[in-house]
Fold:
Amino acid sequence: MCARSSAARPTDLVVVDGRIAAGPAPRGAKAVDGGGRIALPSLVDAHIHPDKTIWGGSWVSRKPASGIADYVAQDVELFRNQRRPVAERAYGLMSHAVARGTRAMRAHADVAPAYGLAGAEGVAEARERLRHALDVQIVAFPQHGVVRTPGTAALLERAAREGLVDMIGGIDPIGFDHALDEQLDLVFGIADRHGVGVDIHLHDRGETGLRAMRGIIGRTRALSLAGKVTVSHVFCLPGLSDRELGSVAADLGDQDIALTTVAPSDSLVLPVARLREHGVRVGLGSDGVRDSWSPFGNADMLHRAHLLGWVTDVRLDDELAECYRVAAHGGADVMGLDHADLAPGAPADFVLVRGECLPQVVVDMPRRDVVVHGGVVVARDGEFSTDPVAGGVTGTGG
Structure:
């Protein structure tokens, strides 16, 4: 495949057995002409809710909401009024994400008595249909609360016991569930018993959020779950002083607790560079996409990298390129995946776009002309391919 690595001169990319290979293409390899486009690592969506989406369906008018409880009630109403099952809606959104260059995602699926395990089962069905094109981790997410909604903990336990999910979630153990120790004991207990990870939504700010963080760090240490815990959003961190942030970041790095952000605003986006100084893995995600919470979202991680640059007011080329790296390699770090950095031996997960250089691509967000996953062309011209082109990939020309 003839392409350019960022602003470098045209070169061939050779893929063998799903990995970037050094040297010439093997005899009989299938050639795909990259046309001198820029080759970039595929992206990773570290936090998305595909079970809630109405992607591809009719317009839904939202109602006013003043907090999580209101949004939760609207989630249930929308779920009950949907004619399309979760699997169909999730597949539509997830395949669209692939066409926009996403190689992997961590999908949060609501688990509550109102749904049972329908959300997680639907996302799992979509994952199976997309197994050739997308790597997916599923989180059993107790959006309605673990303690405040009786029956939820039992469903979380069942999802983990049956191997339906990769991680157990939680949500604002103080501000929403009003049960810090009880929620964390339940969530971490399930994870420890069944050998799955933890990914907790934490919107609480100030000292409330920090108390929850200390509880999470303490349980991670006590149960030896280092490297298996993620905290999402973490709105309590951006407002800290540099000294306070450094102290929390050191504890997070010590226990290898990962964080994710969706870059919602300049005041709530995580201080990625400062956290990484302490070895904290930080990924970027889409969050909800066209659901009862919001009409916005598109599951396009290049657009999310663009938004990260926008809300953090970056201007320099290196800063813009770093936004892309967070969207690609940051999410891979959170999910425990190898970097798709186009080096020999790396996963053959990349996108081809027309552009001058990576910073310009982040700003202009050109169409993803070709998307390759594991050496297979899975999307062309911005459209997901139901008939992927497999085989070693190479090309000629300049």
Observations:
- Residues 391-398 have pLDDT under 50 and may be disordered.
- Residues 317-335 form the longest helix (19 residues).
